[in-house]
Amino acid sequence: MCRNISMRRTGEACMNRKTIFIVLLLIASALPAAAAPAVQLTNDSAFNSYPFWSPDGARIAFVSSDGVHAGIRVMERDGQNPVPVTDDRSWNLFTEFDPWSPDGEKLLFLSDDGGGLDLWTMNPDGTGKVRLTESGCIVPIPGLSGYGADWSADGRRIVYTSCLFDDAAIQEVNLSAIRTEADIWIMDADGGNKKQLTTGGDARLPLWQPQGDRIAYLADRSGNREIWTMQSNGTGKTQVTFSEGSVSGYSWSPDGARIAYVVASPPGTLPEFSLWVIDSDGSGSEQLTTGNWDTSPVWSPDGTRIAFRSESRDRALWVMKSDGSDLAPLGPDNPAYMMHQWSPDGRTIVVSDGNDLSAIPLEDPAAPASPGFEVVSAAGALLLTVCLLRLRKQK
């Protein structure tokens, strides 16, 4: 039987060992959730960025640069056996699009091997390189983000952005212009049957609807930059978002039913970026975050969670349920973390800090991490101290 602890001076009720144990559990539950340690995958002098998982989750393709040139490497998911698969004496890279074909047999990338930056494909081991475009117009430089490409779900076609000049002939980007002109095109996976899908020079960042035949893209034709969708033959163009500011980025949910997107505040107001979700038909718009610089939403493979980057919170990476609830920090505190990508099994997120790649393991891929609390209350801390002192006196 536990003996009671007398508190003669204070006249407080007695407390036995069982009660103290319960108190300890309650206080421990209020402690911040421990962040999962990150496992560093690269360790060299290069700038390693833009990691993308293979569809089977066994490999990671990424861009490695010495600051002058950029090459593509493929390594095992644990960072072992990184293999250069392009010539590092030129520019070979991917930026805002997943390079892996749905079957994992091809990589889609940009290369200046032919003079200007064009779209190419190759096998993951670097063999079988095929040049798909010959325009030299897809230029992933600051201020021109969004000039990318995407595979169709069956891997048979590729939607991409081409820059236009004068009579709509495909030419190099006019870098002296304040706003570059670009439109959405589509082609077969071997580069054949190219077809222009949009006109007006205001469309970019095309992404194919998962498990569907619609293509989403950003366009300025309504006055603000908004999300539009269309059929893969260019018909049925529909404006999806009607934001008060402008949309700067977005991503499809894995089932293609919803879109997570970033809204920048209107000109002349305090600069902010917030996250929203909307149904693919334009209904059900819902704001998930507010008053922060929240960007880069990436859906978990099962569509239940969204990971994103924040510039104003006390951590760089966060995760929440797809309805905005259960917000929690993701991984250790590293303000440089970015370019986050979920593994196909939802158990790991790979990130870049601009220099190296790291993997953040998730304890339970089926549920968000526990948000915990920032601090333990002063009363709780005092009670914990008293309990420990009383227990020590009993021994």
Give a topology summary:
Blueprint: H1 17-29, E1 39-40, E2 47-53, E3 59-65, E4 70-76, E5 83-84, E6 92-93, E7 107-111, E8 118-122, E9 130-131, E10 149-151, E11 157-165, E12 169-170, E13 182-188, E14 195-196, E15 203-208, E16 214-219, E17 226-231, E18 238-239, E19 246-252, E20 258-264, E21 273-279, E22 286-287, E23 294-299, E24 305-310, E25 317-321, E26 328-329, E27 338-342, E28 348-352, E29 357-361, H2 378-394
Antiparallel strand pairs: 1-29, 2-3, 3-4, 4-5, 6-7, 7-8, 8-9, 10-11, 11-12, 11-13, 13-14, 15-16, 16-17, 17-18, 19-20, 20-21, 21-22, 23-24, 24-25, 25-26, 27-28, 28-29
Structure description:
There is one protein chain. With 395 residues, the chain is mainly beta. It folds into two domains: 1-31 and 377-395, no CATH class; 37-376, TolB, C-terminal domain (Neuraminidase). It has helices at residues 17-29, 378-394; strands spanning 39-40, 47-53, 59-65, 70-76, 83-84, 92-93, 107-111, 118-122, 130-131, 149-151, 157-165, 169-170, 182-188, 195-196, 203-208, 214-219, 226-231, 238-239, 246-252, 258-264, 273-279, 286-287, 294-299, 305-310, 317-321, 328-329, 338-342, 348-352, 357-361. The strands form seven sheets. Strands 10, 11, 12, 13 and 14 form a five-stranded antiparallel beta sheet that branches. Strands 1-29-28-27 form a four-stranded antiparallel beta sheet, with no helix packed on it. Strands 2-3-4-5 form a four-stranded antiparallel beta sheet, with no helix packed on it.
